[in-house]
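Q: I'm writing up a methods section and want to include an example of the input and output format. Could you take the sequence below and give the corresponding predicted structure tokens, formatted cleanly so I can copy it straight into the document?
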Amino acid sequence: MTEVVEQNPLEDERVRLILDSMSEGKTRDQLAEQLNHKNYKTLDIYMRRKGFTWDKQDMTYKLKVDEDTTPPSIDRTKAGKVVMLLNDEEHNVRTVAQKLRFPDHLEMANYMKGQGYEWSEDQENYIKRIGKVEHPAEDIKFSEDERTKNVGVDAPVLEQSTMDRYASLLHFLEQNEDQLVELLSTNPSSAKLPRYTLPGAAATKTVQMMSSLKEVVSAYSQEYNISQREVFEVALIEFFEKYGYSHQVDVLLKR
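A: Here is the clean output for your methods example:
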């Protein structure tokens, strides 16, 4: 039986050439062109298959040292497929997104984020985040046991504190319920236009305004079958009531 001896990657002539060339100052782009790679990314893929990783600080390839010699388990989840395909497809996120039937690479990025991954510029791939992962609110689901175990002795105190904090607001809403209902349920396009009977004789007053506003007044008057005089009467009366002449309006309307 023939014994298979695994070759030391440093004894590979092509690997040795790449490492020696980089120590002489050549860049990844230059080496990729020299060795007929499509670009430096395919050179990275080749070196990773030989057991090397790119050291961004020293700007060279270094032999990867595995702290754990146990063969890594294959991640067969969809997120795992994304990571695997990115290594095989020259880190082309659009190609991988299309292969895995994502609408686009942005949707794939959102999916990976939700699965606890983040993009690594150094590895040009997604890596698993370590620590707490913030999930979107709509993705968080609690079981009945999880909901009940969070109810402790402090729950009644928290509830009372919350009620005390909003007591004044609730009281205000209750006191002004009618006005709030009227305000929220009023549709400006269907609101009943107030009509006023004013003392005195009709008089003409010339007022300059921008032509655009004049066109709006004319269009509103025709659409809602109301005279322009009534439009200005309503507008002026409400203006005076809101901005400092409410008493004079009350006298005028004999309220």
